[in-house]
Amino acid sequence: MVLASLLIVPIAAFAQNAVPDYAWIGAGVRTRPAYDGSAAQRIDLIPTVRYYAKPWFARTTQGILEGGVRTALARDLIIGAQLAYEGGRLASESDFLRSNNVPDIKPGASVGLHVEWDQKLGPVPVTLLARGRHFIDSDRGAQADLRLTAIVFGGGAVAAAVFIQGTWANSKSSQSFYGITPAQSTNLSPYAAGSGPLFATGGLLWGVDLSREWIVVGNLEARRLHGDAARSPLAERTSNHYASASLAYRF
What we know:
The protein is mainly beta. The chain has a single domain (about 15-250), classed as Outer membrane phospholipase (ompla), Chain C. The protein is built from 3 helices and 12 strands; from the N terminus they run βββββαββββαββαβ.
């Protein structure tokens, strides 16, 4: 899941309850692997947005670029439906893919549902997000995320949070990204990828107020492939890293 010109896969700022109730929009830069499992690293221009106006929302603050509608089921429990941007896997970004004649997976979109629980564990604000995503291209299958964010510092102009996330994929999704058929590559052995855990990720989210209107937000993130994705011949490595920094105008 990557973003260039609208690439987003792990772009993040704060959890929803990590900042006051304002919106922002901006752009920045990110370093990320060509795809999860690639040994090649790339740099993108990326957007950042946080906007809540009942019932509508748009955000990049929960790991992907998504927007849709939300409503409260209870004081701290939110349910919503989202349309999200989903990155692809481009051979032009990876010498390994090019040399093995692996076809591109074009960027696309997904639709899905999410449930969010905002609460405090002692003095620590936390957000637990459960999200299901089905790719509009049915050949790419479906994925599910479980993400926990905890605010660890929020004094003055600086705020910071830590997060962990697990992502699971059904057999179509795993096969589309990490499976190999004879028609897809003549240089690599066929490989069937089934459903199960796709990756686990964790990192640090941060933000700095520059003025009343301007902020800088960013993240540092480590991601590790699991299951059939980690065993795929397409996985040059099982661990990757991401980092981003964005300048945003708040309103």
